[in-house]
Amino acid sequence: MIKKINGVTFVKSASTSARSLSILVDLPSGQASNEERRWSNKATQDAHSAMLSSPLRRCILTNQVLPSDLMVQLKIVKSRPSTDTGKTGRVPSLLFTPSKILHPRFSVPPHGKGAWILCWNDAVQSLAKKGAYKRLSVTAQFPSNLPLKIHSQMARRVVQEIAMFSERAKSKSATLASGAMRDCPAVEVGQGDWEKITDSVSEGINGDSPLKVLDKDGKRLRAVISFSPSATLREGNHDRLAILVPLDSAASTDATASSIGSRIIPVFNLNDFLSSVVTPPSDLTSATGAVPSLSDEACGALNSLINLFARRYPSSQVGDTSNPSDKIYAIYADEGDQSGRTASVTVSEADVNPLLIALWRCWLWTGEGWGYRKVPLESK
Predict the structure, then answer these.
(1) Is the pTM of this model over 0.90?
(2) Is residue 363 classed as helix, strand or coil in its secondary structure?
(3) Is 6 left (phi over 0), alpha (psi -120 to 50) or beta?
(4) Residue 141 burial (CB < 10 Å; 0-12/13-18/19+)?
(5) Residues 97, 149: contact at Cβ < 8 Å?
């Protein structure tokens, strides 16, 4: 089924029932493995297309039907009773909590009545102000720190996906199907290349894209990620989480939703987003009892992958390692046949997509990712 919403065409899969258009949709139990497979999606599909082809859900605030990867699910759960109340017989209060943001391998989604809302901090704030959540339950409380909790879980999801991407890449064969030695799918990028990218974008791209310096034969550049406090993306006086950079020469810098294709590369600056996490992730506590920063955890996973390739495959290209403190990385997928026949050999789009989707959702959450298509925060 093809559905057109606000000029954007979405494809609804045949497996999605009519119940998906209801606000009160809850997926069946045991859906964690299904969700993990869906985030991987097809090997030949880019991350943006995978997000647009996710199951449709209706936003409780705007009443618009959108792909679920562009939204956040909220569930009503019972809060833990206070330890100082004793056995008073009081029924624990009901609270709204985010669901299905963390990786299903590390967190089991809560059960209960649920609703979907735009993946946007302003939308959640507007939902609390308008009180539209009371359509689900008049007794459930909407915690004031819910946006901070969603932000924290999205940041943790990125780190989890980076760790999973590193593990998937490590499990691949040392050689490609052609017999050539593979290159590391994560490559360190120097501060100089980062400055070329950001300076060219801010001044307008003329001629070749600044990302040409990172494009490599046999590999498809999928994203550039920075965890460095000194590497910034700016528009006017505002810091940005991400920008879209065309890789083809003479490509337009005015990328719209319909023109985002396989050669439009997202460039993410995650330092501020990860450092502003409020809730400490208990599952990342180190053996010494200290809680490392999310940036350090993400860089550690990528550096572990790079160091493994440097030790085992000396001829592998691992990028500029002269200054590891730059904390800037280019993420690649192998070109060529990415069918199931060579899935154990290639680092395919399916291996990279879960990480890219997690990054895109963070971009949507800040509001920047909705820039190409403004969504009014008004119920219809």
Answers:
(1) no
(2) helix
(3) left
(4) middle
(5) yes
Q: What's the token pair of residue 201?
A: 């974008």
Strand partners, 75: 97, 114
* Token reading at 364: 């949507």
Q: Where are the beta strands (DSSP E) in the chain?
A: 2-5, 8-11, 56-58, 65-67, 71-78, 94-99, 114-118, 186-188, 219-226, 234-235, 238-239, 242-246, 264-269, 328-334
- In the chain, the N- to C-terminal Cα span, in Å, equals 23
Whole-angstrom distance, CA of residue 55 vs CA of residue 51:
9
For residue 349, the model assigns a pLDDT of 85
Minimal CA–CA distance to 228: which of 264, 202, 197? 197
Q: Which amino acid is it at 72?
A: V
Closest by CA position to 348, among listed 365, 332, 324, 327: 332
Closest to 323 measured CA to CA, from 303, 344, 342, 294: 303
Q: Which residues touch 126 (CB under 8 Å, ≥6 apart)?
A: 61, 377
Which residues does 141 contact at the CB level (< 8 Å), separation at least 6? 93, 94, 95, 96
Q: Count the residues in the chain.
A: 380
Helical H runs in the chain?
Answer: 32-40, 47-52, 121-130, 146-170, 191-203, 271-275, 294-312, 349-366
- Model confidence over 332-371: pLDDT tens digits? 988 755 444 445 567 888 899 999 999 999 999 999 888 7
Q: Which residues of 41-55 are buried (b: 16+ CB within 10 A; e: fewer)?
A: bebebbbbbbbbbbb
Residue-wise pLDDT tens digits, 41-56:
444 567 888 899 999 9
Which own/partner pairs from 53-56 qualify as long-range (CB within 8 Å, at least 24 positions apart)?
Answer: 53/10, 53/11, 53/13, 55/12, 55/13, 55/16, 55/20, 56/3, 56/10, 56/12, 56/16, 56/20, 56/21
Contact predicate 186/330, CB 8 Å: yes
